[in-house]
Amino acid sequence: MSKHKDTIDAEVVDEKEESKSNEDSFTSDDVKESLNNFITQMDNLSQGVKILLALPFIDIIWVVYRLIKSIAKDDVLGLVLAIVAIIVGVPFLWVIDMICIAVMGHVWWLD
Predict the structure, then answer these.
(1) This prediction's pTM
(2) Where are the domains of the chain?
(3) Helix H segments across 1-111?
């Protein structure tokens, strides 16, 4: 009888651990939703805030935005270009971002 009770207790513990691990884990849908939420929040910023975020040294936020946007759309070319922009484009990309935000209201990227 004790052996059967131990088996049942072990099954209950396993079920609890499995349900807990399912609650704590992220699915790819959760990650995509988080990325899309970030993109939406950045897109909905006012033009003044977007321009402030395009200032030198702060413009890295827009570079990360481009990276996240490419990841969310599964765009390999955009992903590669965003990584290159992180490495090479930071010194001059802020000027392009300022002009694009002033003229179009958003930063330019492959859409």
Answers:
(1) 0.73
(2) 28-104
(3) 2-24, 28-43, 47-53, 60-72, 76-84, 90-104
